[in-house]
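Quick one:
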Amino acid sequence: MGQILVRKIDDAALDRLRQLAEDRKMSLEALARQALEREAERKTSEEIRDSLIEIEKLRASFPSSDEDSTVLIRRLRDDGPSHN
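Output:
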């Protein structure tokens, strides 16, 4: 496993992190590791962009309609999905 050393942490921030770790009954190191691992799981800008492109492709694959969605929902509720 890798290691990092973080220098020049603001004293107030470090005090706050120590308090958070104590409140959660964990070490400061464990709290920092948890925060770093959580941050590492976040999607990059490129991954978000790719996801949005895929969503747009999926959206475009459905037929568009100018009909009010309220009308469509009521029709499905009242008449079932086979009604046109």
